[in-house]
Amino acid sequence: MKQTAFAEVIESSLHSFTAQSWQWDTFASFGSLVQIDASSKKIFAIVHQVQTGSMDPNRSPFVYQKTEEELLAEQPQIFSFLKTTFSCLILGYQEKGTIHYTISPEPPKIHAFISPMDKDTLKTFFFHDTYLHTLFSFSHQICNIDELLLALFKQQKELGILNKSKLHEMIETFSLLTDNDYRRLKLFLARVQSIT
Predict the structure, then answer these.
(1) Helices then strands, each counted (H, E), the chain
(2) What span, in angstroms and rounded, lies between the C-alpha atoms of 161 and 74?
């Protein structure tokens, strides 16, 4: 087991999977990229939904009007019924050192371990904006794809790879993938300004 693993697959298909965190308070951030090490390949996916709730369908969290610290001291057992799950869309996979920006030929295995992508792999993955094509093919499954893109742009800025040239290239691809929707592009650009 890798030390960086923090969750495992509980539902799986060719294009997406749902995972459960080992600890209810360990979250995969919205827009973050995670990986699954599958025998001969690594599968890369983006987190597009995160949810925390009860493990028991007959037991719902109850409001106590107390802080988390107070509840941990007085009723620590209530936290043992909580779980955090997150949903991911597969953006590509790496096989024999080559990244393929397409869904994997087979779905991730149930109980496969999930880790965050390391910085070097993220930089390599983000080198081409081809992943945007794959992401947009899932737009009907994403609550708000523009929010997800902003989270991706922010990640790239934090990695130090979002220069003007790269940003221009990504915006051009965004424009093409949205059928040159001028109004949407204008609003999106205004929001991109706040993170670059």
Answers:
(1) 6, 7
(2) 47
The whole-angstrom separation of Cα 153 and Cα 195 is: 8
Q: Is 75 exposed, middle or buried (0-12, 13-18, 19+ CB in 10 A)?
A: exposed
Are residues 106 and 24 both part of a single domain? yes
Q: For the chain, what is the largest distance between any 2 Cα atoms, rounded to a whole number of angstroms? A: 57
CA dihedral 158, 145, 33, 89 (to 10 degrees): -170
Read off the amino acid at residue 114: I
106, 182: one domain: no
Looking at the structure, do residues 141 and 52 belong to the same domain, yes or no? no
Which range marks the domain in which residue 165 is found? 126-196
Element holding 20 (H helix, E strand): strand 16-21
What is the SS3 assignment for 9?
strand
What pLDDT digit, counting tens, does each position of 130-172 carry?
A: 999 999 999 888 889 999 999 999 988 888 888 888 888 889 9
184: left (phi over 0), alpha (psi -120 to 50) or beta: alpha
List pLDDT tens digits, range 54-112: 888 777 787 888 898 998 898 888 888 899 999 999 999 999 989 999 988 899 999 99
- CA-CA-CA-CA dihedral for 94, 95, 100, 104, to nearest 10: -90
